[in-house]
Design a protein that fits this description.
heterodimer; A: 228 residues; Immunoglobulin-like; 2 domains; seven-stranded mixed β-sheet; 3 helices; B: 556 residues; alpha+beta
Chain lengths: 228, 556
């Protein structure tokens, strides 16, 4: 009993400890926020250009509008101005863990170039970040095993971005594509047979009317080159 | 004129048949006999040093000594890759009872393991909430020809695997530039330990892309939860992707049991969705190591075990069919994976290719799955068979005593001491291994191999030495990194990816290298080559002549 009471006291103490910031990380029972940035400007930004409020849902249900995926965000692409400040509301609609990670950010503001939200289960987190001015496409994804591979992948473009990342659901094709069985319908067969018949008849016609064709060709050549 | 025509026709005919006959008899062959002097031996055909792996990376030597973290006593683990002591401490106290500093040394999520009330007031928590996720290792990526969340079972061997993993946090890979899975994500599914009478809630949070369940094989559990929902993990109550389900148990019976997925059971079991579930006797002040990640040595044994034994090990035997494992690497679309696994793959026409002990095949078993002993020890082994086939476990130099079968203790008169333990699929043996040098239980100190004696079991896709071979090592015969001494030559060979890729001959070193290494190439029969060339030339000449003649005839 004594141990249990001590345990209870310890538990409440740790609850407060957990909510404390820990080297750019804020973590509690619900989830964690890493490298949020509300006010530090990137070196190349004299000021914040615009404030963008984005709500991002994560969940299995958002993959349903895509074929061949299992997890997804509700949106796959955002485009913001250089030096924009983004206020993200991240909502997890599943009963499992999901993350929202943005990679390739400047390391002097975001350690390891990373901005990271994580929800241990259904819930909601809010955090902001300020993007540099560079025209660039940032990877936004959930880094749980198999989640990005199965569709939880999006892109954040600054100033129109520098191209699309591969295998963003509904936006870009994969690099290593799956193979699917061909649909050999009646229409497909008919198309092939008709094409073959056209090809054969073309050759036949050429042979049957060979004489007429040669004389035609002669006429044409004499017209073009009358000296001959 | 006619005679001339006949002669010409005849000679053309002869020349043609002769050329064809020659060509037929001199076609260059892929293989040729060598005559008197066979070709020289060639050494190490694959001389790519980048494929050589360091036997022990010695990443965390500070994890080896006995230590106390968060008031948890953690036994010494002298092997090359000891279990992370912070992970052990967190597994004992729960993620809710350790400091932020300790938790940050692990990959556990903050709600992975919550320890609650002490129901019987005996000084240890009795309400245990365990959260498990489902992880694909060595899976495919639509973004290129590489595998992601990689986990090597042996040098260069990365079969697709599914495992249950304690709920984790942060990146699945070691860092953003790496494809290697973080240390919590590994085979086998973790061993779970609870106390008899504990109220245990196991939540399956299905992070995977196919449905799964948890079936508690042999563990005392009601068929329905208190809410009247499924509690037996049956196929018709699958937990679909993104969903979670909590199984409730309060086991009355002590013993070594199992948990495994019961959806598409044959395939999901063989993919790795199964682990040991051990119920320990209720004792006062009995804080158990709830997770033994990667199985192997239990660094914080229970009070009951400590009464009789000096050490405790969990041995999880598992096999992989490479054709089944490849399905998740060849396709990414969940519909294709489901189709290939459920209908195209046929387990009744399948083989086992990889054999794992605690998630590794030899030589990686030497890094984290040796049994490390002193003289006169009493060691408790929990052995479970997750293979498709039965195992016949043999420990060199020792005879061990079976104390329980399938979680039921044997009376002293029923206990058998033997040197081959036969364990059918899903069966468990609790074993008392003594290291008393008495000529029966032990023949004295050594680096004694132990392995499944089924001949396939000691191979990796047919390459020996591999499979589930490991070593029962007496401490005096280990080096400071916990690797067995006197094995340098073997290590040079087996810690090379080319060896398991079948690019290297077995015996290439020493005086027998020239005798047993790879045979070189034989030179071709040059006379045959000349005759073949001449005949082809004649034929082409005749063909050209014929065409010319036909053309001239049509002109005239």
């Amino acid at each position: 009993m004594k141990q249990f009471l001590i345990g209870l006291v310890m538990f409440s103490v740790f609850q407060t400890v957990f909510a404390m910031e820990h080297g750019g990380m804020l973590m509690d029972e619900k989830g964690m926020i890493m490298n949020a940035n509300t006010d530090r400007l990137p070196r190349d930004c004299p000021q914040i250009s615009e404030n963008v409020d984005i709500t991002i849902h994560a969940g299995q249900q958002y993959a349903e509008k895509f074929t061949g995926k299992m997890f997804a965000f509700d949106t796959q692409e955002w485009d913001v101005k250089p030096c924009a400040k983004i206020n993200i509301t991240f909502i997890n609609d599943d009963q499992i863990r999901h993350q929202l990670m943005i990679h390739g950010l400047p390391g002097y503001l975001y350690p390891e170039g990373m901005f990271h939200l994580e929800l241990n289960g259904a819930g909601q987190l809010q955090a902001s970040l300020i993007l540099p001015s560079q025209k660039k496409t940032y990877l936004v994804h959930c880094e749980l095993p198999q989640h990005m591979e199965k569709g939880m992948k999006a892109q954040l473009k600054v100033d129109g971005g520098d191209g699309d990342l591969p295998s963003i659901p509904g936006i870009s094709a994969p690099i290593k594509a799956d193979l699917y069985k061909t649909d050999w319908s009646q229409l497909a067969w008919a198309t092939i047979i008709i094409s073959i018949l056209i090809g054969v008849s073309f050759v036949l016609i050429t042979i049957i009317y060979a004489d007429k064709l040669t004389s035609l060709a002669d006429k044409i050549t004499t017209k073009i080159n009358p000296k001959k | 004129m006619t005679l001339k025509k006949v002669l010409i026709s005849l000679s053309v005919l002869l020349l043609t048949t002769g050329a064809i006959y020659l060509i037929y008899n001199t076609i260059p062959q892929e293989f040729n006999s060598a005559g008197i002097n066979p070709p020289e031996t060639i050494y190490n055909q694959a001389k790519d040093n980048s494929n050589i792996v360091k036997p022990c990376s010695n990443t965390h030597p500070e994890w080896r000594p006995a230590q106390v973290i968060e008031d948890v006593t953690i036994n010494a683990a002298p092997d090359c890759e000891p279990d992370n002591p912070y992970e052990v401490a967190t597994s004992v106290k729960g993620t809710n009872n350790v400091s932020m500093g300790t938790l940050m040394q692990t990959d556990f999520a903050q709600d992975a393991l919550t320890m609650g009330e002490d129901l019987d007031n005996d000084g240890d928590p009795d309400v245990i909430h365990i959260k498990l996720e489902v992880v694909e290792l060595n899976g495919s990526s639509p973004d290129g020809n590489f595998l992601i969340n990689t986990y090597d079972i042996a040098p260069g061997i990365q079969p697709g695997l599914w495992v249950y993993a304690p709920k984790s946090r942060g990146m699945a890979v070691k860092n953003f530039n790496s494809l290697v899975a973080n240390p919590l994500l590994r085979a086998p599914s973790p061993v779970i330990r609870v106390e008899q009478g504990d109220k245990v809630y196991i939540t399956l949070e299905n992070t995977h892309y196919l449905p799964h369940t948890i079936h508690l094989h042999g563990v005392d559990h009601p068929w329905m939860t208190s809410k009247g929902e499924d509690n037996d993990g049956m196929e018709e109550h699958s937990v679909f992707p993104g969903k979670s389900h909590t199984y409730e148990i309060q086991p009355r019976h002590v013993g070594t049991m199992l948990y495994h997925c019961h959806v598409q059971t044959a395939q999901h079991f063989m993919m790795g969705l199964g682990g040991m579930f051990i119920v320990e006797a209720n004792e006062p002040n009995n804080w158990l190591q709830t997770f033994n990640v990667g199985a192997g040595q239990v660094r914080h044994p229970s009070n009951a075990v400590k009464k009789t034994y000096t050490q405790e090990y969990d041995l999880h035997y598992q096999s992989i069919d490479k054709r089944l494992a490849r399905i998740v690497q060849d396709s990414n679309d969940p519909r294709l994976v489901a189709q290939h696994m459920a209908r195209d793959y046929n387990i009744t026409e399948s083989f086992e290719n990889y054999f794992l002990l605690n998630g590794h095949s030899f030589p990686y078993t030497l890094r984290d799955s040796m049994i490390i002993a002193d003289d006169n020890e009493d060691i408790k082994l929990h052995i479970a068979n997750f293979q498709r086939s039965a195992i016949g476990l043999h420990i060199h130099g020792h005879k061990a005593t079976i104390t329980a079968l399938d979680g039921v203790d044997l009376a002293a008169s029923q206990q058998i001491t033997r040197d081959v333990l036969d364990i059918a699929t899903a069966q468990r043996n609790d074993v008392h291994l003594k290291t008393q040098n008495d000529g029966l239980h032990s023949y004295g100190p050594g680096l004694w191999m132990f392995h499944d004696h089924t001949p396939t079991g000691t191979t990796t896709d047919g390459v020996e030495p591999g499979g589930n071979m490991a070593i029962l090592a007496y401490k005096s015969l280990l080096d400071e990194q916990g690797m067995p001494k006197m094995h340098e030559h073997l290590f040079d060979q087996v810690f090379d990816k080319d060896y398991y890729a079948k690019n290297l001959a077995v015996w290439t070193e020493g005086p027998f290298g020239a005798l047993l290494g790879d045979a070189g190439l034989v030179s071709p029969n040059y006379l045959n080559l000349i005759l073949f060339g001449l005949a082809i030339g004649v034929l082409i000449g005749l063909l050209v002549l014929a065409i010319l003649m036909i053309k001239r005839k049509s002109k005239s």
